Recover the amino acids of this structure.
């Protein structure tokens, strides 16, 4: 099955050096980007029903830019002034720098890891008495909560935003031979928008075990899987698939 026209179920990268663009140029691919899910902030009424007060916490764990945006959006609408003593624990450096959109960046109160909650443990251990708030989506994984409980850290989850299926009914999926997914919600959005979707020769790629599981649960065939030891990113997994297909084609000649 040839890879030529690809649909990535995420927003288009803003950086011109994105590996997707590099891959497209290298193999003469047509790559389109379209988010399959959208994120909506919860209403103030929905937030208040959780009986959570941001000011009861001394630290916040931020797993994404979306979490950052919604945390400060709700604080603003509630007319809350987040104290300058608040500590921010970010999953990555990019999230930490994104905080500058809302606060003055100070190294003494902002900590970041390399994409894993485990990276933040040494810093968290320095502030064991902190009370952490963890902004999450209505559909979220439990691994961070389990980690915090295991390490006996005081925390509370706050559902600040919802993940829902985007409206994709204007799209013509038949244009694409490859669909790439990055979350179970994206897979469910495909089936909600196109309930009569038949995979047939369409290739499907999934990033992460939960996404791969969702593909199979929908009765679809998983052709490209990431991350792998030799392909930690989706673009690397896609390139590996292309190389294997070219090699197999060459062997038949």
């Amino acid at each position: 099955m040839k890879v030529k026209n690809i649909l990535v179920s995420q927003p288009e990268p803003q950086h011109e050096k994105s590996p997707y663009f590099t891959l497209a140029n290298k193999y003469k691919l047509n790559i389109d980007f379209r988010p399959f899910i959208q994120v909506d902030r919860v209403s103030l009424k929905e937030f208040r029903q959780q009986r959570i007060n941001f000011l009861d916490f001394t630290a916040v764990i931020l797993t994404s830019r979306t979490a950052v945006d919604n945390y400060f959006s709700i604080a603003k609408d509630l007319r809350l002034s987040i104290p300058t003593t608040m500590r921010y624990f970010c999953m990555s450096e990019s999230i930490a720098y994104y905080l500058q959109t809302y606060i003055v960046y100070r190294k003494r109160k902002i900590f970041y890891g390399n994409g894993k909650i485990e990276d933040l443990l040494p810093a968290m251990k320095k502030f064991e008495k902190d009370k952490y708030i963890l902004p999450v989506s209505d559909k979220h994984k439990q691994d961070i909560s389990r980690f915090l409980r295991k390490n006996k850290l005081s925390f509370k989850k706050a559902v600040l935003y919802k993940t829902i299926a985007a409206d994709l009914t204007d799209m013509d999926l038949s244009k694409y031979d490859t669909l790439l997914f990055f979350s179970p919600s994206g897979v469910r959005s495909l089936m909600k928008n196109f309930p009569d979707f038949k995979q047939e020769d369409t290739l499907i790629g999934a990033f992460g075990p939960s996404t791969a599981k969702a593909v199979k649960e929908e009765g679809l065939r998983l052709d490209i899987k990431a991350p792998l030891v030799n392909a930690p990113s989706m673009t690397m997994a896609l390139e590996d698939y292309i190389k294997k297909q070219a090699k197999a084609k060459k062997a038949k000649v």
Summary: DSSP finds nine helices and eleven strands in the chain. The chain has a mean pLDDT of 92. Residues 40-163 form a domain with the Rossmann fold fold (CATH 3.40.50.10090).
